[in-house]
Write a structure and sequence with these properties.
By secondary structure, this protein is of the alpha+beta class. It has 2 domains: 111 residues, no CATH class; 104 residues, Pnp Oxidase, Chain A. 53% of the residues lie in helices and 19% in strands. Strands 1-2-3-6-5-4 form a 6-stranded antiparallel barrel. A hairpin with a 2-residue loop joins strand 4 and strand 5. The protein is globular and about 55 Å long. The two termini are 31 Å apart. Keywords: Membrane, Transmembrane, Transmembrane helix. It comes from Promicromonospora soli. Pfam families: F420H2_quin_red.
Length: 253
């Protein structure tokens, strides 16, 4: 999420400034430069966030370097006519998350069991500690909410506080399955959004530019949840030790 938010912010800053200076449609006029800028925009926020969270330099460079190396390879592929100009950005952005997952698979113990280089253990029922959730809520979520629900599996779940009655919007990663949506619970089943959704039942979800209302929400265990995921994602979620999933069904007409 930090990678996506940072890339969009830095992308708007660079390409917006270029447009003000008269360099409009830079993606068409300078495709190689644009790919390089996007690669930096994807890598830099992620590296800064990982270091801020206390990750060691080696995994930080592995994670951020994956998008940089892929961007450079994509430029070479464009120069050698292996990738068309109009497909460059689509290929680059589509590969960003799979590249991150691939790097995680190299160090499953680090990303599944520890939040920091110092080795603090993960929460009992989620792969990441509650401190991550609090940091995201204050720093990353306000930015991500601006485009969540419009890009790929990045989804905006609107739910009502079980105690306050206020309406909240939480960005999550969701996947379609068997007439519903399945969401991996990254910070444990005691996360506020999880408890609110389970208590309220009906929930509104914005995904890929469309807002739908689901009438039922259930908490599933690891086995049931993994079975509902697309087959290519089951391995990464298993390695991350995601133990609970929220299953949204009964789509309202």
């Amino acid at each position: 999420m930090v990678m996506c938010a940072g890339a969009i912010a830095l992308g708007f800053l660079f390409f917006g400034t270029a447009a003000l200076l008269g360099y409009t449609d830079l993606l068409q006029r300078a495709p190689a430069l644009s790919v390089l800028v996007i690669a930096i925009s994807l890598s830099l926020p992620m590296a800064v966030w990982m270091r801020f969270r206390g990750m060691a330099w080696r995994p930080t460079l592995e994670m951020s370097g994956s998008t940089m190396v892929f961007g450079l390879l994509l430029i070479v592929a464009y120069w050698t006519d292996l990738v068309a100009r109009d497909s460059l950005v689509e290929v680059q952005t589509s590969a960003a998350c799979p590249l991150m997952l691939a790097v995680m698979l190299l160090r499953p113990r680090l990303y599944a069991g520890h939040a920091h280089g110092g080795g603090r253990p993960a929460t009992r029922d989620g792969p990441f500690p509650r401190g991550f959730a609090r940091s995201n809520r204050l720093v990353a979520n306000p930015v991500i909410r601006r485009f969540a629900g419009s890009i790929g599996p990045l989804t905006l779940v609107q739910h009502r506080g079980r105690k306050t009655g206020r309406t909240y919007a939480t960005p999550v990663m969701s996947f379609t399955t068997h007439g519903g949506l399945v969401v991996g619970v990254m910070y444990g089943k005691r996360s506020d959004w999880v408890r609110n959704v389970l208590a309220g039942g009906a929930v509104e979800v914005k995904r890929r530019g469309r807002t739908d209302r689901y009438q039922s929400a259930r908490l599933l265990g690891q086995g049931e949840g993994l079975h509902l995921l697309p087959s290519m994602l089951r391995g990464p979620f298993r390695l991350l030790r995601v133990r609970h999933f929220v299953y949204l069904t009964d789509l309202a007409a």
